[in-house]
Amino acid sequence: MSTDEGVYAWSAVLMGSPILLKLFDNNPTLAAQVFRLIRHQENILTVNRAHSEVMAINHAAGQNAVSVSREVFDLIACAHQVSLLPDSLFNFTIGPLVKRWKIGFQGNSVPPADELNRLMALTDPHNVELDPARLSVFLRQPGMEIDLGAIAKGYIADVVRGFLRHQQVERALINLGGNVQTLGAPPHTAGWSVGLKTPFGRADELIGVIEVVGKSVVTSGVYERYFERDGRCYHHILDARSGYPLDNELLSVTVISDRSLDGDIYTTLLYGLGVEKSLSALRALPHIEAIFVTRDAEVICSSSRQFAFRLLDDRYRLITDSTA
Ligand code: ADP
Ligand code: MG
C-alpha cells in the first residue's frame, strides 16, 4: 500500500499481470475483498492452469457438452457472437494457436506452416454449440480450445467496478494489466489521467495522457508480449485466418468506453480492421471511441466526447478524425 495526496494504492500480480487499485479511503479490508474477487474470477476463467470452468469445456472437446455458471455462459455467448461477426479478427476458439505459439510464455520459435494449418482447422467458432437452457457449451472437434484471454481482464474490471459501486465507492481506479476501469474522478480534478505507453519504449515512457471520468480505457499493443526471430517481431494478437500474428500498420489500439468488456472486444476488432475501416465503423458507434498509434508515428483519435488526450512525445504527430 502507498499513499499520495489522499490516494491509497494497493498492488499485486495476478493473471500474469500487474494489478493496481486506487481508493480515496484507507480501506485495506475493501482492497483485500477486491483482490479476492479478481482471484476468484481468474480461477473460473483461466486457461493457463489444468482446472477452471473454461478448462472443463476444453477437456470435453469432441466428447460432451459441459454446463457452466450463468456468468461464464453469458461471457462465452458474448465471445461467440463477436467471433461470428463478418471479418472479425476476434476469435474465442483461437486457443490451439495461442498454446502452440506460446507468445508471452517463453515461446521463441515460429511453428511450421503445416502445423499451423492443422491447428487453424480447430479454430472455427461455428463449431461451438451453446445451449442457453442447460447453460452448456460443446466444442464439436477434439482438440478445440476456448481462450478468453482477450476479454477476461475487461470482464473482471467491470465486475470490480460493480462491486465497488455496490459498496458505495464513488471514486476509484482499477488497472488490470492495461485494462483501466474508473469510477468518478479524483477530488478537485477534471478526471483520471491514464498514461498511453510509448511502443517498445522504457517502462515509464509515455506518448501521451488520456483523461477520463468514470470510463474504461483499454489498450492492446503489439509491444505488450512478443518475441523476435530473424529480424521479425511476433506478437500475441494472432489471426486465426492466417495462423500468424496480425501484421498491419498498427502498434496499439486504445478504446475508451463505458464497459471495459467492450473496450477489450473493440481493441481486438479495430486492431483487425486497421485505421481507415475502424474510423468509419466508429462513426456509427457513439459510445465507443479509440486512439490508434501507427508504425509511421501517428496518433489518430476518433471522436473524443468521453476523453481528452494530451500528446507528450513530439516524435509522434497527433491527428483527429475531422469527420467525426
Ligand atoms: P493483453 O493480454 O496484452 O491485454 P489482449 O487483450 O490484446 O492482450 O489479448 C491478447 C490475448 O487474447 C492473447 O494472449 C490470447 O490469449 C488471446 N488472443 C490472441 N489473438 C486473439 C484473437 N484473434 N481473438 C481472440 N483472442 C485472441
Ligand atoms: Mg483485450
UniProtKB/TrEMBL annotation:
Enzyme class label: transferase
Gene3D superfamilies: ApbE-like domains
EC identifiers of the protein: 2.7.1.180
GO molecular function: metal ion binding; transferase activity
UniProt-annotated binding residues for Mg(2+): 150, 264, 268
Origin superkingdom: Bacteria
Claim: Flavoprotein is one of the keywords in the record: yes
Cofactor requirement: Mg(2+); Mn(2+)
Catalytic activity, reaction form: L-threonyl-[protein] + FAD = FMN-L-threonyl-[protein] + AMP + H(+)
The entry's keywords: FAD, Flavoprotein, Magnesium, Metal-binding, Transferase
Note on how the cofactor is bound: Magnesium. Can also use manganese.
Entry's family note: Belongs to the ApbE family.
Protein name listed in UniProt: FAD:protein FMN transferase
Originating organism: Candidatus Pantoea deserta
